[in-house]
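INFO batch 0412 | record 1 of 1 | parsing
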Amino acid sequence: MDRWSGVLKVQLDPNSRNYYRIAASLCFSFASKSLTVPSANAIFFNGDRVEGTRNPVVERLSDLQKISEVLVSKFGASVNAWVIEASIFNGPFAVYKDFIPSVNRYGEPKSYAPVGFPASSSTVSVLSNCLEQAKNLISSGQRYPWYTSISASPPKTLILGFSKGGTVVNQLVTELGSLEDKSPINPTHEKEQPGVMELSGVQQEIQIIPRTKENLLKSINEIHYVDVGLNASGAYVTDENVIRRISKRLVDGVPGICFLLHGTPRQWRDSRRAWIREEKDKLYRLLESEARRSAGKLKVCERFYFADRPPDMQMHFEVIEKMDISVD
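INFO prediction complete | emitting tokens
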């Protein structure tokens, strides 16, 4: 399958003074010169900046475009990959202020609360604006439509948070635990027509990415914590009420979801930040307990990499490439 790729600078809204850098690798048809509807959108939230290491592995996996290529190689060519970098940096520290309003100047959250659903709303906004930019680049100087026919079902959503990016995952999980709308996931209400059906740009956009926070949250079927960690508490969600509410929604009939916790000695064996391992262990126990009650609709996997190596910065980045994303 062909692809369109690029790194774009995207505002959350027209009044925003800050820009998100987003690497996008999108399903594309060179024959029709148009984007095609993916099977899933893999959305990766990046962490703090690490510069000047002179380590080729760290340098390569600090590149947003390279990470998008890794995601496509892992999840498959039918997936769109979006790698999002924070719009605000305090020195090397990523600050996802739009997604988590409670963060301090170092990007560390004081708490996770669903009020206003900021992470899901911001995710939809930056992806929509990024897609609009990609659409303009694709259609510039051409008479081809940027969209294709509708797919049979909306794409699934795969959420990944690396290092500091795990804070956004925590906020999304918190919002998912407060989602109550039980309306169908499919955002279009189009009836099937014989043959291929072409849609307006807006309708096709709905199919390529979720267009509302509700549809984004409902479409999530995998959540990956990728060697997350902070210099303060809050690396993992530990609110049992949040996990119980997610489990209850699954029991009530919504599609299943899998949590995958990927870690290295860099985070899980750091004696100076013992809370990272403690929080991870608590989240795993909560998920494991609810998995038994959900009749298999909630799954959890824990994977530890480079166990025989002393902690270093290289393994922290290398896990992006080495992580096992299988859910069985």
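INFO post-check: DSSP finds ten helices and eleven strands in the chain.
INFO record closed
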